Amino acid sequence: MTLMTACGIVEHELETLDNSKYDMIDFHFHGGEPLINFKLIHDLCEWVWSKSWNQSFHFYVITNGTLLNTTMQKWFEFNKDKITVDISVDGINSVQKANRGCTVHELPIEWVHQCWPNSRFKMTISKKSLHEFANGVIGLVCKGYDVSSTLAIGEKWSEADILEYYKQWDKLINHYLYNGPIWKQLLKSIDPLFNESPIQDKCCNSGDNAITYDINGERYPCVIFTPLVAGKDMRKEFVKIDFSNPSMFADPECSDCFIRNMCKTCYGFNLLQRGNIATRDKTACSMIRIEINAICLFQGLLLRNTAIKRELTEIEIQRLNRANTAFMATKLQNYHYSNGIEDLLL
Question: In this structure, are strands 24-29 and 56-63 parallel, antiparallel, or unpaired?
């Protein structure tokens, strides 16, 4: 992208912000690897910051961290209140090497954490990294880092993968029941499971309050729809879609599924791979169900442990009942946690 194009995009978005329903804008630099074009990021930000804008905005860089040299780090650190570096970290060294081609020790993780203490490291779970998922989480969280994990899009998960994922979550539950600090993903709210709305919740901001510009300044619902990823211009397909209408993103096959409002999907890949933005990849269902089931079990066990020490409040009793209900509703047949730990919840 040229600097002129980038400046035009930012200027347009800031000028139209006052007439929108939003109070501020987050600008995310992503790719590919955005730091390949660090000069653009530097020059654009310096230009924007030199202006007297009335609108609120913030810049983010989403990077794998391999190009973060000393010069870049000094500039980012000097401007850390105005721009945030988000980095992808997939776990232990062997996993990082398999997924990203570098080791964790080669990345400036501690520097990112010091500059932006609330920054969350993004972990992608692939077939290559699945067997070390729990060790990766535990290793990063024990150092005080916040980590969010997501399943890699497009993987064809086998029965062996499903069993392994179950074992990994079992390990995480057993670890964090007795060791802190607790991984925040285990404390994720399960309230969406009890949303009785007949329309399935839209699980991302694509095309609604999030848009993507390609290198030529063309607008797309998200990066998946751009020619860079799609390999073709998807304009004819996505112009027909009302991204503010959740019903267009609801898969009829999932309408009665208990986990439908906590189940993540990629609408762009749905359209690319299955020809319909709503049609989800059903091969990932068991993997997603395992994660939600583990979260429900862990939260229920925490509340059970609390009940041993003191009487639960009405809200805590409601949460315990919900965790119990959701655990039973999401449990997979023939899969059992170690040490009979699920029996402690019932």
Answer: parallel
Q: How far is CA 15 from CA 19, 177, 221, in A?
A: 8, 50, 20
Q: Which residues pair with 27 in a beta bridge?
A: 59
Look at the chain and count its residues.
346
**What is residue 35's DSSP assignment?**
G
Q: Look at residue 93 in the predicted model and tell me its pLDDT.
A: 80
What CA–CA distance (Å, rounded) separates 308 from 286? 33
Residue 346 has pLDDT above 70, yes or no: no
pTM listed for this prediction: 0.90
Residue for token digits 């653009």?
40
Integer Cα distance of 108 and 71 in angstroms? 13
Classify residue 104 by its DSSP letter.
Answer: G
**Buried (b) or exposed (e) across 149-170, using 16+ Cβ within 10 A?**
bebbbebebeeebbebbbbbbb
- HSE toward the beta carbon, residue 28, CA cutoff 13 A: 13
Residue 77 token pair: 């650190």
Residue pLDDT, tens place only, 177-199 = 999 899 999 999 999 999 988 78
